Description:
By secondary structure, the protein is α+β, with helices and mostly antiparallel strands. The chain has 15 helices and 18 strands. It has 4 domains: 2-122, Methyltransferase, Cobalt-precorrin-4 Transmethylase, Domain 2; 136-203, no CATH class; 209-378, 2-Layer Sandwich (Heat Shock Protein 90), CATH 3.30.565; 395-453, Orthogonal Bundle (Arc Repressor Mutant, subunit A). The strands form 6 sheets. It has a 6-stranded mixed beta sheet with strand order 10-9-13-14-16-15, covered by helices on one side. A 4-stranded mixed beta sheet has the order 1-2-5-4, covered by helices on one side.
Amino acid sequence: MLSRLPDRGEGPRAALLPEVDHDLLAETLTAFANSDGGTLLVGLDATGQPTGRVSPDEMEGALRVAETRCRPPVHASWEHSETPGGSVIAIHVPRSPDLHSLVDGRVLVRQGKDNRPLGGKEIRQLASSKETGSFEEQESAGASQSEDWDSNVLDEYLQQRQERGAARTTDLQQLLFEVGAITAGGTPTVAGMLLFGRRPKTFLPQSGIVFVKFAGTEPRAANGSAGYGRREEINGPLARIVERAWNVVWEEMSVGAVVNGLAREDKLVYPRFAVREALVNAVCHRDYRISGRRIEIRMFSDRLEVISPGGLPGYITVDNIVEEHFSRNPRIVNGLFQWGYIEELGLGIDRMIEEMVNAGQPPPEFKATPYSFAVILNATKTGFPTYRWARQMNERQARALAFVRENGSITNREYRTVVPTVTAETLRLDLVDLVKRGVLLKIGAKKGTYYILK
Length: 454
């Protein structure tokens, strides 16, 4: 049980509670249920050591009280383990299809290791997302495991899952039902077909990726006419799609060389992790309800665009995409996590920005419309000066740094034009934070203040 806690300790899907606290217990149940679910370990301190201050009898009553403080009640399961330091209770909270609030009206979600209350607009966005239902759970009409699944792909998944620490299963059908790959009657779901299907496109024509390479910076052929240099259609189960898409991008990506001593080291235009993360995110989080449109990868001479159908899910916006996490397709996300394509849930965007910046390239651009979301990796001919990216920087700060690199400096007024949807005080604190981190240097005072790279 304790092995289920991520190595990083508390996070988007894990929480520690040293002793029974009805209020904090109810808040965490609500936050997990409104987000992607998670596990709450009661009886462990902040370092992960048992406190000896919890008992199973006390926990059973406390959980009933906490559940009734949620509207509607959050239903969770729990299990008990005895350690040399005392009892530890693991409470497992699934993602809920309902929107949950506390009795005082607050709606909470999990942000990092905190339970964050949502504002009015965010609550409406989350409620709208919940109301659409979970398309990935729906039955894939006409499909069967024996006829339409690839047994080699399924075996690979089970092996990878076991290598990541999961126990060997003795009841395969029960496991497949628990992970959302089949219905209670054994029929493949949409998620099951996408993960294990031999030809998912037969049942979901919108699955797959289209790759197109253009010669220049515009969607035209080398001679200026309409057209492209290469076009590939990539189909199959999701794990194969990610690998094949990466291989196509690799084949077409410019590779430079850096001489380190007597060794020649190849240097990619776009960092490997940033490209793979953009691909995996598109596959995981696209809206599979949208038919007639597939994920698109567009490669230009100066940028790589990965465009997925469907706007941002839940309460996620371009401004909070680094700090927040919400999955439209949690079963698909968990499947690729078990496969090893996702290193740790909720941290990919942060590391994507880090890899791009440390490679001397601008931070990724994120563009959202009601019906699509695009990740744009830009490349420069000369590269930018690099610095050590600090985790927990937000996407607003990434935009500020991109502005500084392009223009040499930034003022508070200029920052407000870069991010017009955020309050002036929030932006001022962003710049103060970058100064404290040693990334920016403050020049001048009062209205004459501006910031440059340190």
